[in-house]
Specification:
By secondary structure, this protein is an alpha/beta fold. The chain has twelve helices and 13 strands. The structure holds 6-O-phosphono-beta-D-fructofuranose.
């Protein structure tokens, strides 16, 4: 029998489309059980800063508004890591915030980094927690899909389609740089769906010669344009990671590999003119797709169900069409899920004749 009467929900880490759909589904299913839901502002900050920052969410004031259908996080999110030495202090403040609000548990919508950080706070402070995976990078371990990935793929695929039209008009090879950090899921999925000619991902090494050979093959086939999708996390030929800035905790913000490749290809190959599009944060901003809304609903209702059964320290996820739950310790232990170079997505790209690197 559940002892829960009041829960908190927060979004943590970089935003992505579908977060509001998750929040709405948490509110609906919790309210159906007679619980109160408090939305915590700006990730964990709403509980660790003074004054606390939160608001009561209801079906009426949140679910029945346009918010569940649009991207971004209504609650705000926090995308900065926490230094090891600050963890104990932050856990204490987090626990005090939870106590002051009278929350019986928290639902944390986050990626691999947030699952790690917030599950630690909860463990240290004795707070019940269920995690819901979200990230456009799709690199949260154990679950097959995280909320936000499908919507980001849709934006990238539509960008490839648009680029294909203008590439054709001007007989160009157009490069699209997409996000994904260290994982190539987003690049590979959108390259396959967009029928790209070349896709470069951090998990598979490439050569300039390989790229040029593929472009020449396209040209010889009689086609007058080409599409290259590159993941922001791939390295230069010298193994250097390119970044355009640093974030608030001094980590590199990836970006710039598209420009680098543009310059390198142009310097050795004249068969196509190349240009670059760096898609940037629009990838996080399309309205949530059907799949992300469905996933949001399934994972959120499962999270509430698990709390009702007095479970804690778990993350929900989707595996082969089934909603599952995984111990958070195991999620943290697994780290980040990269694209499998021997998996079916890579196999598919190869069979389609795409150049995906030296594999
Ligand atoms: O992890 C999600 C993500 O969008 C990555 O794909 C990207 O590298 C990063 O966040 C960008 O972070 P920020 O918005 O902090 O620059």
């Amino acid at each position: 029998m559940s002892t829960i009467k009041k829960i908190g929900v927060l979004t943590s880490g970089g935003d992505c489309s579908g977060l509001n759909a998750v929040i709405a589904s948490v509110v609906k299913s919790a309210q159906n059980k007679g619980w109160e839901v408090y939305g915590i502002h700006d990730g964990t900050e709403g509980l660790t800063e003074t004054p606390l920052s939160y608001e009561k969410l209801t079906v009426h004031n949140f679910c029945d508004t346009p918010w569940p259908r649009i991207s971004g996080s209504y609650l705000g999110s926090l995308n900065k890591g926490v230094k090891m030495e600050s963890q104990a202090e932050m856990s204490k403040r987090f626990g005090e915030g939870v106590k002051a609000l009278g929350l019986d548990a928290v639902v944390v919508v986050g990626g691999d980094g947030s699952m790690n950080i917030v599950s630690n706070y909860c463990k240290n402070a004795g707070v019940k927690m269920v995690g819901i995976p979200k990230t456009m990078d799709n690199d949260t371990p154990l679950t097959q899909y995280s909320v936000g990935f499908d919507s980001a793929c849709q934006v990238c695929m539509e960008a490839v389609d648009s680029l294909n039209n203008t590439a054709r008009s001007h007989h160009r090879a157009l490069i699209l740089e997409v996000m994904g950090r260290d994982a190539g899921h987003l690049a590979m999925h959108s390259a396959i769906a967009g029928f790209a000619d070349i896709c470069l991902v951090p998990e598979i090494p490439y050569t300039l010669e390989g790229i040029v050979n593929k472009l020449e093959e396209v040209k010889k086939s009689g086609r007058t344009h080409a599409i290259i999708v590159v993941s922001e996390g791939i390295k230069t030929e010298n193994g250097e990671t390119l970044s355009s800035a640093k974030n608030m905790v001094g980590e590199k913000v990836l970006g710039g590999i598209g420009d680098y490749l543009n310059e390198r290809i142009n310097s050795v190959y004249k068969g196509f003119q190349t240009r670059v599009t760096r898609l940037g944060h629009v990838q996080r901003a399309g309205n949530p797709t059907y799949f992300d809304r469905m996933l949001a609903s399934m994972l959120a209702t499962k999270a509430v169900e698990l709390l009702a059964e007095n479970h804690t320290g778990i993350m929900v996820g989707l595996s082969h069409g089934k909603v599952e739950s995984y111990p958070l310790d195991k999620v943290v232990e697994c780290g980040t899920t990269l694209l499998n170079p021997n998996g079916d997505y890579v196999k598919t790209a190869k069979s389609l004749g795409m150049y995906i690197g030296e594999i």
